[in-house]
Hints:
Znf_RING/FYVE/PHD, Bifunctional apoptosis regulator, mainly alpha, single chain, Herpes Virus-1, membrane, two-stranded antiparallel sheet, 3 domains, apoptosis, DNA polymerase, domain 1
Amino acid sequence: MSQQMKWNSANDSVEELMDESSLLSESSDPPQLKSSASGISENEFSCHCCYDILVNPTTLTCGHNFCRHCLALWWESSQKNECPECREKWEGFPKINILLRDATDKLFGEVLQRRKAEIQANPKISRSLLAFQRYGDNLGRAKTTQHKGAGFFFSGVLTALTCVAVMVLVYHWSSGPVDQHDLLITKPVSHWTPEEVVSWLENLGPWAQLYKEPFQQENVNGRLLLMLGEEELLKSPYSIENLAHRRVILAELERVKALGVKPPQNLWEYKAANAGKSLFLLYALKRSPRLTIFYLYLFDYSETFLPFLHTCCPAVTDSDQPVESSFVSSQVDPSWQQWAEFLVKYCLLPYQLIAEFAWDWLAVHYWTSRFIIVNAMLLSVLEGCALWRLWMRARIRTLPQMMWSHLWKMLTQGFAFALLWPFVPQFVCNCLFYWALYFSPIINIDLVVQQLMHPETVAL
């Protein structure tokens, strides 16, 4: 009640001042009337921050009035919703006092025009006003979300149904028949049956069908496969005279001997062989792609990083080069041209590397690759918007400090994941994996729309 009386008394006083200002405008002798209106002075319309005439006066809940830009500068520097004078917290988002603004425009029009021109020419004040207004827009959007009623309810129901659908799909996929390739990536090569050896050979490419029959006739199992060399492959009954084909088979044999099992050659095989690592990489690539790619370089160079680099930044070769020759070339160290292209993309567009890698796997993972590509594009837009906000708010100097804090945060989260991973059920990990893979792009679309469609704010 007392607060309402304060506002009423303030409005009455403003109306009286406006009446007096109208009398001043009707008089033919302004200096004489200005002297007669001795009750009006600039001090009564001054801001308690800059001690000058109020520009776009903003009234707080405590009753104090400040220039709009002064309040924005105070809010940005202190990051507190407090009155600069009495330190009382304001409620909601402060609005411009229209009556007081009209009164100051009539009484001090020339002074206000000069002050507004000075404020508009100051980029720091414009950025502060923009950030202050965006804070108010986000605050209003949050209140709207809290009171959406039925829309908010149905959104929650849709989210719950989506979670149920993910769990059902994970249960269905995990309870289905085990694929032959899933067995090969976990079963030791010395225990492979002749049928599994033929399956491994077919997985090398369509050209391997030419040599399927000799392996079946010789009944080659895992132990015999490990004993094969270049001379045996060149002689009868295999008779692999094509040098490129023979090099591919020998290169894969070397990898099988080194790992003891079949190396994963697609996303699902990699997930089956490295369940914890695949979940970690999926979330880490979203949060910090540069650190994640650097992690692969340090700890998984030959098996993951090298094929990733050759896929994203392929070497310049003849277009008529067969597929099997390109397979062998992807296992060698990259050239300096590949390294230069990779480092430029790594620093500027890390998500483009992920999109290019997914694009190369469209024939194998049709829909999954498209989800990854769309998600990489959305994450690139969000990263660009974050850098633009830092530039507009003149906080680009804080970027090294933010990078250090982000590095520390990612290291602690990765260490916590490594400790908790053995205790998390596989079913829960699969749910998290498929949620991040297929539903993360939908969430990022909403974030991008909020960033791009955010209403711009005029400084004055």
